[in-house]
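Exercise: predict the fold of this chain.
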Amino acid sequence: MVETSYTRLIDRKKKRAPGTTNSNHSYLKYPNLIKELAPTRSNELWVSDITYISVGYDFNYLSLITHAYSRKIMGYCLHPQLTAQGAIKALQMALKEKPAPNTLIHHSDRGVQYCSFDYIVRLKKAGVKISMTENGEAYENPIAERINGILKTEFKLKRVFSSRSEALLEVTKSIESYNHLRPHMSCDFLTPEVAHVTDVPLIKRWKNCRKKYKSLQKNN
C-alpha cells in the first residue's frame, strides 16, 4: 500500500502517548511537603504516579506507590481506565504494611485520581500526611518518574502487549523482579526488598544523591 500523508497522520495518532494527569478539577489540592526532605528511614515518604502501558491499539494505566527511601514498590495496579479506582487499589495494597499514624507522607501530582474523595479519605483514615506537586513538573516527583523509566526500559514494559492478560502477567513479574533482584546505587547497592528491612543507614552511592544529601545536612 502506498503511504500517504493521511496514513502517516493516522499512525502518529495511534502512537501518541496519552496524558495521565488531569489537575483541572474542583477537588482540594494539597501543598508540597517534601521540597527539602531527604528520607532517612522506612515509611517516611511514599511517592505515587500513573504511567501508561500499551495494549494492542489501546492503553492501560499502571498506578504505582514507591517507598522513597528503599525504592521498593509498595503497591501497584494495572487498570483498563484512567480512573481513581486503579490508584485506590494500588494504595490499598501499600497500606497493608500498616504504617504508624502521622509518620508517613504520601506525595503525588495533583491529578484528579489522587485528589478524589475516596483516595483522600483512605489516606486520612490511615493517618498518612498528604503532599502534592505544585506545578505538575517531573522534577517535583523525580523518584516516581525514575521508577516509571526503569520498569519501561530495563523490564521492557514499554513494548506493545497483545492482550490485557499478557500485560498483567508481565507487570507483576517485572515488579517482583524489580523489588527482589535489582540493586540500586541510591540504596547502597541493595535490592529494594532488602533495603526496606535493613536497620543499617543506606548510603547513597549515586553521585547526585550524595551531593544533595550532604548539602541538606550542611543546611540543617
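Check your answer against the key: The chain is about 40% helix and 15% strand.
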